[in-house]
Design goal:
This protein is α/β, with parallel strands linked by helices. It has a 5-stranded mixed sheet, with helices on both faces. The radius of gyration is 21 Å and the shape is elongated. It starts with a strand and ends with a helix.
Length: 212
Amino acid sequence: MRAVIYCRVSTNKKAQETSLARQKEELIKLANRNNFTIITAIEEQESGYEIDREGIFEMLDYFSDGQADILLIQDETRLGRGNTKIALFHQLQKLKVPIYTSLHGGEVEVSESDSMVLQIVGIVEEYQRKLQNAKIRRGMKRAVRDGFNPGQNLTNRNQAPGRERVVFPIEEVVQLRQNEMTFEEITRRLNNLGYSVSKATVHRRYQEYVNS
C-alpha cells in the first residue's frame, strides 16, 4: 500500500523541530514494519484547531487523486483537534482512507464519543444529499417543462467546432462542493440525472464560476 506520512506540531519554535523529526522517524519505522511504500512525508507547524493548512490540503490531494492509499500519523491529535479533527476524520472516511498511528502500532482506534459524532455527521450529510438530489430533480423537471431535452444537450458530438456549451446547474455543483463531494461524485450524479457532462467540464465550469 502507498502511504502518506503526516507530521504536525503546534508552533514554529525551534524546539519543535525535534518533535517533527521524531514523528517522522517513528512513522517511517511503522511503514517499514507493514511493508508500506512511502509516497511523501508532510511536515507542518500549525495549530491543530486550524483546518486551513497547506499540509492538510496537500495530503487530501494525494488521496483524492488516487496517488496514495493510507495515512500514517503519530496519533489522532496530530491530524487535528476539536471539530477540525472530526471534519478530517469524516473526509478521510469518505475517501476510504485507513489511518495508522505509531501510538497504536496499527489502525487508529476512534473513541466512542468521536465515533458517535461521526455517525451523526454521516446521517446529516446523507439527508443533505437527499435534499440536494430532490432540488436537482425539481430543477431538471422544470427545465424539461420549459423545453430542455437532456438527450440533445450536446449536439454535433463528432464535430468539435459544432460543440454547444453543456447546460447543467452550476449553482448546485457549488453547493455539492461545499458539502465536500468530489468532482467525480458530482459528475456521476449529474449524469444519472440526464446531464451529459464530463468531470473535466464540471471542474472547469466550477473554477470559472467561483473565480468570476
